[in-house]
């Protein structure tokens, strides 16, 4: 496998491109908007600059890796002749199904089609193609250049050969693959999102404040980041979408998102991406400061500034 295409120039897409390019693969980055591509390429270069500064790679390594990347706004040109396409578009089922319909028609028959989806059924995605045996989940963790895990999800008709190929490829990237079956949320988000939702419910019910909840989970459970801060980092809209996939997929009310999460997303408080979620990110410092609406006057709990 030599030539890769990645669809979607957002945080996950540019991270995936970064990793492949650094490992010597030719990578085509595809997005419908040129400004997204420009921002993605700038982000990749900036992140590689950090690696150079830390001594992780050389300036020559960076130059070579960046030369492995080509950007396209036309999906047909971008996937021409590639061996693997990884879709990293918005976590919306209809958008993904439309992309895979196109990919099935535009790529060579032996090309593997992978999705970086964090919760949507691989079997459902594969059903709109004529090659369900070659459709698989390849769920990277954010930030992709740093996190080691790749959750490999076999759809109902994914072949053993396809799964083995993606496992081997993940190892080639320096990642640690873990194979799961195609159930809502797979393993990562089936376990993670109910925990995050429970933390939000605890806040909603005034059991404890934002900082208290995160401190207990960090110091008591050895989590590197508290669940509310992690929700902000993931994006509260993404958390809500995954919980709804779990609720719809299992038909179990225990996966129902909290009213507080629903209201925060409706109000546009999405976490880091919007500048405010459970914490405030618009103050221009590295301090972790509880968002104004969750301070003492509203929740009954004091806010304390913590260094990230």
Structure description:
- The chain is of the alpha/beta class and 308 residues long.
- It has two domains: 3-181, 3-Layer(aba) Sandwich (Rossmann fold), CATH 3.40.50; 190-300, Orthogonal Bundle (N-(1-d-carboxylethyl)-l-norvaline Dehydrogenase, domain 2).
- It has 13 helices and eleven strands.
- It has an eight-stranded mixed beta sheet with strand order 3-2-1-4-5-6-7-8, with helices on both faces. Strands 9-10-11 form a three-stranded antiparallel beta sheet.
- The two termini are 40 Å apart.
Helix content: 40-55%
Q: Quick check: average pLDDT? A: 93
Main pleated sheet:
8 strands, mixed
Shape: globular
CATH class of the largest domain: Alpha Beta
* Radius of gyration, taken over Cα atoms and rounded to an integer in Å: 20 Å
Spatial gap, N to C terminus: 40 Å
Overall domain count:
2
Q: How would you spell out the order of helices and strands?
A: EHEHHEHEHEHEEHEHHHHHEEHE
Label the structural class: alpha/beta
Number of strands: 11
CATH arch. level architecture of the largest domain: 3-Layer(aba) Sandwich
> Could you list the spans in which at least 5 consecutive residues all have pLDDT below 50?
302-308
Strand order of the largest sheet: 3-2-1-4-5-6-7-8
User: Approximately what portion of the residues adopt beta-strand conformation?
Assistant: 15-25%
Looking at CATH, which topology of the largest domain would you report? Rossmann fold
CATH superfamily of the largest domain: NAD(P)-binding Rossmann-like Domain
- Count every helix, treating DSSP H or I runs of 4 or more residues as helices: 13
């Amino acid at each position: 496998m030599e030539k890769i295409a990645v669809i979607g120039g957002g945080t996950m897409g540019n991270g995936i491109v970064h990793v492949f390019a650094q490992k010597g693969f030719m990578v085509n980055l595809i997005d419908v908007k040129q400004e997204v591509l420009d921002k993605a390429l700038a982000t990749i270069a900036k992140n590689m600059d950090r690696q150079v500064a830390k001594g992780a790679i050389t300036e020559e390594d960076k130059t070579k890796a960046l030369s492995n990347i080509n950007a396209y706004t036309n999906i047909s040109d971008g996937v021409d002749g590639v061996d693997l396409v990884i879709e990293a578009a918005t976590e919306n089922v209809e958008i993904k199904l439309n992309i895979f319909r196109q990919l099935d028609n535009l790529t060579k028959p032996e090309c593997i089609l992978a999705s970086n989806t964090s919760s949507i059924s691989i079997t459902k995605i594969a059903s709109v193609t004529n090659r369900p045996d070659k459709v698989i989940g390849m769920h990277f963790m954010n930030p992709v250049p740093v996190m080691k895990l790749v959750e490999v999800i076999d759809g109902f008709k994914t072949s053993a050969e396809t799964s083995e190929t993606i496992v081997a490829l993940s190892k080639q990237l320096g990642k640690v693959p873990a194979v799961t079956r195609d159930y809502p949320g797979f393993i990562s988000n089936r376990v993670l999102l109910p925990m995050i939702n429970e933390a939000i419910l605890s806040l909603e019910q005034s059991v404890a404040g934002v900082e208290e909840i995160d401190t207990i989970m960090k110091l008591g459970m050895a989590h590197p980041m508290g669940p509310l801060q992690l929700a902000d980092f993931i994006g509260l809209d993404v958390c809500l979408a995954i919980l709804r996939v779990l609720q719809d997929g299992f038909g179990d009310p225990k996966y129902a998102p909290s009213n507080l999460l629903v209201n925060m997303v409706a109000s546009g408080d999405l976490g880091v991406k919007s500048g405010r979620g459970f914490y405030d990110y618009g103050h221009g410092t590295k301090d972790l400061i509880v968002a104004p609406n969750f301070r003492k006057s509203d929740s009954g709990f004091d806010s304390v500034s913590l260094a990230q």
